[in-house]
Structures are given as C-alpha cells and as structure tokens.
Amino acid sequence: xxxxxxxxxxxxxxxxxxxxxxxxxxxxxxxxxxxxxxxxxxxxxxxxxxxxxxxxxxxxxxxxxxxxxxxxxxxxxxxxxxxxxxxxxxxxxxxxxxxxxxxxxxxxxxxxxxxxxxxxxxxxxxxxxxxxxxxxxxxxxxxxxxxxxxxxxxxxxxxxxxxxxxxxxxxxxxxxxxxxxxxxxxxxxxxxxxxxxxxxxxxxxxxxxxxxxxxxxxxxxxxxxxxxxxxxxxxxxxxxxxxxxxxxxxxxxxxxxxxxxxxxxxxxxxxxx
Length: 273
Prior knowledge:
alpha/beta; four-stranded mixed beta sheet; three-stranded mixed beta sheet; 18% strand; 273 residues
C-alpha cells in the first residue's frame, strides 16, 4: 500500500489527515476493527484532534505488535461492532468510552455532542457510556458525560459553552428561538442567558463554513437587526479566532451578566422567545 499524499480539494486538510490515519490503521491490519478515536471518526464525530491515535482490535482480542505506528488493543469486540464503510467499527457508546483514555475533556465532549446532534447516539446511550466508563475504571471522567448536549450544532458552539461553564455561567438555553409579537421567527440563539424582565443575552458562534459568503453575511446582518430592534436583546457574535483567546469571550459575557444581576434560570419564560 502506498500513500500518495494527494489532496482532495473537497475535503478540509485536517479531515484528510484524520481519514489517512483511519485507513492506515485498518489497511495495516486487514481483519481489524476500528476502536477509540478512529472509530469515532468513522461514526462521523466532529471535534476530534487533527492527529488521531490509530488503534485497532483484532478478532477475539488477539495480540499483535505495533506496525507503521498503529497499535493493537486486546479487546474482544464480538457483539459490540457495527459495519461502517464496509469495515467493523466499535459501537459508538463503546468507542466514546475507549476514547476517554486518549482525548481531552473538550475534544471528547465535542465528539459526543456531534454524535448526539447527528442522532448516532441518543440520551439512553449516555447511560451505557456511564456504565461502561465506570467498569473501565474511568470514574474520574464520568462528569464529562454530564456536559454532553446534542443541541450544539458545531464543535465551536460546544467549545464556547464549555468556556462559559468553566467561567461559572453556563448558558440558560441553547438553540432558543426568538419571535416577534406576530410569531415571526427572528432567529435562533446558539447560547442564551435570561437577564430578567424579558431581556436576554444572545451569543452567536459563527463558523466559516456557514458564515463566510457575502449572501450569508447579509442574512446574518438582517437577522441581527431584527433581533435588536426592540431593545430587549443583547447580541454578541464570536468566531473561531475569538475562541483561541477564550478569556476575551468569557470576560465580555461575564461583564454583561454581572451588570444585569444574572443568576441561573430555573424556569425560562416563554412568550416572545
């Protein structure tokens, strides 16, 4: 097998590197099944690091020495795999638990959010993830499961939410719809905090894939103007560059929340929003 390192213009360079790791692992051991990070990639998880740990498992948990940078994990996957792209892959809940050992908290939550948003896993699967993680001795990381929220529509949204949780002000709601008095949809907020008295702080996380064209930027501007028209909403927009310096994001949000006397909402108002 030869790697030509040719670029696929339709694929992001990071995804191309991730898929290269996946197929390098599976081609190195032709009878193997994908586990851990490469299994999550095959299930369609977003939010994985650029460089994956290529690990596979052989039938019956057979041992084999590492080759070409690929490691073999001795785990018997009988009854715990599904077929993806023609290859055996650890079921998504099991793959998440396996990846708990190698991924950071943020990457892991991004992957779990993504799989839940895509309906690869559901809420009941998180119960299985907790059980498997406990049996695997990963008790110290069980709290990661409580951070999963399938309403997040991108890894950037997950990252922004985690930064806010770490700063002490978890969003009151995600993907909340806001409507005018006639019921017209003005927009959905990626992250939202209720400030009291019908006032809200809205944070929009703009990813380049969906917010970079002139047409989309124009629609975003109109939508933001509609949201701000009656003065009851504060809207902040952040891009991926802002998340590389997360203190700027959390400081700005925190100032508004502190000034407004915000506290976590137990019962969110309906009505206009």
